[in-house]
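Predict the holo structure. Ligand: magnesium ion.
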Amino acid sequence: MKKISILIPCYNEQESLPLLYKALNEAMADSRVAGRYEFEVMLVNDGSSDSTLAILRQLHKEDSRVSYIDLSRNFGKENAMMAGFDYVTGDCCIIMDADLQDPPQVMFEMIEKWEEGYEDVYAKRISRGKESWLRKKLSMKFYKILNKMSKVEMLQNVGDFRLLDKRCVEALKSLRETERYTKGLFCWIGYRKAEVLFDRGDRVAGTTSWSMWKLMRLGIDGIISFTTAPLHLATWLGIIISFFAFIYLVFVLLKTLIFGDPVAGFPTLICVILFLGGVILLCLGILGEYVARMYSETKRRPGYIVREFNDKLV
Ligand code: UDP
Ligand code: MG
């Protein structure tokens, strides 16, 4: 019998977890899968400060299908998922959010596609639930820019909700970068992909832990880890600005020679200096982002540390 792992990162999800477990339980008992597949539910506690861990321990005690990993602190969803990949044992792995925004019923369709031979079945949102207009707009812009810059095609309106064959999980496990942009890595590893559509609902309980700031960081991580295009910005700006500066130089020279114009233009000078200063700082900052990434990767720290796995301290 094939084994299906369900991987769920949890960060301060004490209100959602009981509802999640109920929904999962119902889904796993559904006639489409019950008795035909073995299930494993891998819950990763990403350093929650509420009673999430206590609930996970309780669920593990009551239900042998439930396993849990407790990370030593909050490492972020991307790293929590990496921990999950290392611990799941199924023939495939379904990644889901703990807040039921990814409805478990979608998994039947995913499993069907998987049985047809697809290795990466991702769920595409037709609607995105309650979200601000700005957030939706920014997300759209971000994917446009990222796709323009990177060689790997990134899918829009696709989150982490997907079914991965064991082979995909193995491939992802071999990518040990610690500042991860998993949405991009799914695309990077390739494999045969299929799509299922779903309506993304709202959180059942609790609040999102992704602030605008955190999302922006994730966006920058996405760009930096999948393209070096921003590094060429300095080169192009340099070429363009030098070109215009040269033309202007010729113009000023001729003007002085022909009309004997006395030198003036303090305001223009300040503007140009400030503008160039800004451009230089921007380019330095971009360089810095890449250097910082190199610095943190060369330290070779693990992406996460496990404190406890199924009642055993690690
Ligand atoms: N999550 C996590 N670590 C974090 C932040 C979030 O493991 O540092 C988990 C969270 O418990 C949830 C999933 O990632 O299962 C998605 O988070 P959330 O619902 O807050 O994000 P949104 O749905 O708003 O994108
Ligand atoms: Mg959510």
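The chain has two domains: 2-214+302-313, 229-298. The mean pLDDT is 88.
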